[in-house]
């Protein structure tokens, strides 16, 4: 197998070719499970571990490999093990605010061409959550495609209403209706996946991601579980991993994400809510908050029922959330830098070995 078949495009070919001077080889990260890695090259897939130097030089977890990354490795033990020495530049990425109170980025996957955002039309359908996924994808320079699953569970008229709701918030994203029971839409999804390109599935647990992958694989290799008494699927995927499909496309499967906190997502928010951003340029005041200011073009559009109040509220909520986390991250890093300067000054003035 050639590296181009694993997704090494022209943009990454240059950095990959420079690894030879360092006696390293390019490989792609196909799985991450805590501190354990799997990497793949044209010959096959082997376990890998990070070098101490890479861990030492990493300023945060963002600098460490994630699924989909291209890395520089050195093989050992007759090619059955590998050490990861460097991470090549990412051309696209999925990231979020780290779960919990820690204000830091968490890398989810990298070098993705398109993200299939999966929502069930039964219990999981949620427009604000869909908008969050759209922001994540666009912020990382990834094309979003919306997959509406379990269409066999509702009437055609209800399905059309759901599609209409999606169209109002994801105007330029393709929407594909899928039924894992009847197989409707699966061929359409497969047709969107080109050889050598990388895709991922984003969505909550139980929306049918693993079942869809098994249909795309055609051999049912991935484990699924029976649906619950409510009709929802049960969580199956426990780690992120990259799968090579029969048609040559690459697909990253990943667990459902409970927390989708935004950090540094200003570009993604403005692109996802482009309709509101365009209207905001017509407001009387450049710093309009779209609340109660006179001459607010956004509020006027809401009153004319051209955009929904819910759409505006979610826009304002996500923008405020991202700005708050951005400020918190900046303050934390400034404190870290100040502490580092203090330690440097202390050591400089103390000088010499410690005295008893």
TrEMBL record:
Gene Ontology molecular-function annotations: GTP binding; GTPase activity; metal ion binding; rRNA binding
Cofactor requirements of the protein: Zn(2+)
Source species of the chain: Sphaerotilus montanus
Residues engaged in binding GTP: 149-152, 203-211
Keywords, in A-Z order: Cytoplasm, GTP-binding, Hydrolase, Metal-binding, Nucleotide-binding, Ribosome biogenesis, RNA-binding, rRNA-binding, Zinc
Listed GO CC annotations: cytoplasm
Name assigned to this protein: Small ribosomal subunit biogenesis GTPase RsgA
Main location: cytoplasm
The record's free-text note on cofactor binding: Binds 1 zinc ion per subunit.
Family assignment from sequence similarity: Belongs to the TRAFAC class YlqF/YawG GTPase family. RsgA subfamily.
GO terms under biological process: ribosomal small subunit biogenesis
Binding site for Zn(2+): 283, 288, 290, 296
Gene3D superfamilies with a match to the protein in the record: P-loop containing nucleotide triphosphate hydrolases, Probable gtpase engc, domain 3
Residue span(s) of domain CP-type G: 100-260
First-tier enzyme category under EC: hydrolase
Record text on subunit structure and interactions: Monomer. Associates with 30S ribosomal subunit, binds 16S rRNA.
């Amino acid at each position: 197998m050639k590296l181009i078949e694993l997704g090494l495009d022209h943009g990454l070919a240059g950095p990959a070719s420079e690894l030879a001077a360092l006696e390293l080889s390019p490989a792609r990260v196909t799985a991450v499970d805590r501190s354990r890695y799997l990497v793949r090259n044209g010959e096959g897939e082997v376990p890998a571990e990070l070098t101490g130097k890479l861990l030492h030089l990493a300023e945060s977890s963002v600098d460490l490999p994630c699924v989909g990354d291209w890395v520089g490795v050195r093989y050992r033990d007759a090619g059955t093990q590998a050490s990861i020495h460097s991470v090549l530049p990412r051309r696209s990425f999925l990231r979020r605010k780290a779960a919990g109170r820690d204000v830091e980025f968490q890398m989810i996957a990298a070098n993705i061409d398109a993200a299939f955002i999966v929502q069930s039309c039964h219990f999981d359908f949620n427009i604000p959550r869909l908008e969050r996924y759209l922001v994540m994808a666009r912020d990382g320079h990834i094309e979003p495609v919306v997959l509406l699953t379990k269409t066999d569970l509702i009437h055609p008229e209800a399905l059309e209403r759901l599609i209409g709701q999606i169209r109002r918030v994801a105007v330029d994203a393709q929407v594909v209706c899928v039924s894992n029971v009847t197989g409707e839409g699966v061929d359409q999804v497969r047709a969107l996946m080109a050889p050598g390109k990388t895709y991922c599935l984003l969505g909550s647990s139980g929306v049918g991601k693993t079942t869809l992958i098994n249909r795309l694989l055609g051999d049912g290799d991935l484990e699924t579980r029976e649906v619950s008494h409510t009709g929802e699927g049960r969580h199956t995927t426990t780690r992120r991993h990259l799968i090579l499909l029969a048609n040559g496309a690459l697909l990253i499967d990943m667990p459902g994400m409970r927390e989708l906190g935004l950090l540094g997502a200003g570009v993604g928010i403005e692109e996802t809510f482009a309709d509101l951003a365009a209207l905001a340029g017509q407001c009387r005041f450049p710093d309009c908050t779209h609340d109660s200011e006179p001459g607010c073009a956004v509020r006027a559009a809401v009153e004319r029922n051209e955009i929904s109040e819910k759409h505006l509220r979610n826009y304002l909520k996500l923008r405020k959330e991202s700005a708050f986390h951005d400020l918190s991250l900046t303050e934390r890093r400034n404190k870290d830098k100040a502490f580092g300067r203090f330690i440097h000054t202390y050591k400089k003035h103390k000088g010499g070995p410690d005295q008893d």
